[in-house]
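[scheduler] slot 2 assigned
[scheduler] job type: sequence-to-structure, two independent chains
[scheduler] chain ordering preserved from manifest
[runner] begin chain α
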Amino acid sequence: MTLARRHALAGLAAWPLLARAEALDDALAGLQRRWHPRLAWRPDAGWHDEALAVAQRLVLRPGDDGSSLATEVMAEQDRGPHLAQALTLRGALGDRVPALFLRPQGPGPHPAVLLLHDHGARFDIGKEKLIRPLTANPAAAAWAQRWFGGAFVGDTLVNAGFAVLAIDALGWGERSRPGFAKDDQQALANHLMQLGRHWAGIIASDDLRAHRWLREQPDVDAGHVAVLGFSMGALRAWQLAGVCPAVSACVASHWMCTREGLLRAGEHTLQGQSAFSMVHPGLGAELDHPDMAALIAPRPLLLFGSPQDRLFPWDATQAAWTQLARAWQGHEDAFATRPTPSGHRFDREQQAVATAWLSRWA
């Protein structure tokens, strides 16, 4: 057999594989071209109630049944101007959810902020990424140095007079296990789905219960309990603010983008396994990301984003911001976007802007 004939036969043998690959890509491309969320934002009065009901049904699974949060104080530390406590709360699955709580020492009631931590493919720490723990934790200190300019966000807020709570999302911190890594996420997500749950829904439900815990504290002003998050925590923040009308204001740092922007070839949501913690089955057919965040209007929303952020295409971030602005017509002072030059991080300057924003609305 000649060499040319061998190459020709090899090409014929590979053709079905190539055809199948093209068929798969064509199917996905066609589906995406036809995609239009059923409940894309509309200016009419009926949109909000319908979209809210659908979002709550698809995101809050299992939700908050109103059962006791059964708080246990594990340790506390007097830090002069404020008190720090290590707590556990009862989560949406009935398990214990470790938390860190900061409370100003002065008389209340205090405005409060629920802090929501990032993903970061770092699972041994969660709440400690945002609130300085009661005992020295080099990993937490290094995280604050890398992403927050060396300042724990919780310290920034409590020093401004806010009570602050952060919990471990399922899979992080004390709710993880030794050695849990980014390649273990699919197994966790599948385990939960086989049991009729989904990872992102449990995270959202625990966030909802944590917000209720803050509102129930006697030294907290229940009418002024905001949410703030960075990266995946930003998604958790605008997601919770969208489905929970009791959230008074929202700051979301570096996670807002159109769904189309994140489904482009090579984008991070199509690589690895991290998207499982942020995706709700069925939600994409109903609402795009800015549609979901539009449920917050007319309550205050502040968004940070960066042209240098390699995780979110800047044009798709700007498109999401433009779409969102429509929902605040007549309430323009309650909606703000802040482009930053620092890429995917929430540094001291951004924290100062966020703190001033929250203080204004508190």
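[runner] end chain α
[runner] begin chain β
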Amino acid sequence: MARLVRNKHGTPCTLLTRFLNSPSSLLTQPYRNTSNRSLQTLAYEEIQVNPNKPYTHTALVLHGLLGSARNWRSFSRSLASSLSTSPSSEWRMVLVDLRNHGKSTDIQGFDPPDDMVNAAKDLGDLINFKNWDSPDVVIGHSMGGKVALQFAQSCGNRDYGENVKLPKQLWVFDSVPGEVKSENSDGEVEKVLQTLQSLPSTVPSRKWLVNHMLELGFSKSLSEWIGTNLKKSGGEETWAFNLDGAIQMFNSYREMSYWSLLEHPPKELEIAIVRAEKSDRWDADVITRLKRLASQEGDGSAGKISVHVLPNSGHWVHVDNPKGLLEIVSPKLKSLAS
């Protein structure tokens, strides 16, 4: 269906909207939630509190491995609502399906290989293709956090052209910025990927998959979350992601390090790291290193690092403590409008 929306400058434009077997996409007013597909760009959804107002600020929201944009709808609606409280401030949240994930899975033509560099380049291509202004904020969870870091690094190098500039804030939710070494991991992600590789491309039902994962010893919450990553295919269910491509992205995520970016952040960029209090992904050396970087007082010639701890939360920050996460993020984003 075609829907009339307005861009940042208030100019009407037509957005082709598709809801493919996804009734949950049809959110109630006053929020606008639209999804867009194009052979040339990533799939994405937009959330805006007041559809009839031109937006003044934009945040890109990036999910993690085997996730999708829809995982972040609830938090993004809450964040947009908390920010769009004055007549002069209207935030647009753009929730992206990264390559090999969600509705971007079926889109052809992305540059190989499937790694962090190209996943970030997809964002630059999307911004250029849609002729958007550069986002004010980029938010990434887990693997999406490293895609966000790569995006900032490439923006600083002007890899995407003059139109795509550095965001003002970059948020990394529970994602270690350096290499992820196997000895610092419990191997759960690897076990999940190996299990999914052993399964056929279609399964009888969501219930069957969840029970199968439970029988293999995975937790109920993880098994049920894996079950949400299915889509209808005839009378059966198939994956809502490209598993082989996602595995390549995971390998790149583990190998890439962005410590140099954090040690020398570009001028006027703040990189905010949110560590979940109960997350098992952080070792003491990494925590100490981040605290040291955050405590440094610069001379204004470079950006800055801030570190935040989200209490009462494991890795799934937007599920475990969305209210606490909102209390960390919202005030800083509000400061951009002042």
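[runner] end chain β
[qc] chain β: The chain is about 35% helix and 20% strand.
[scheduler] slot 2 released
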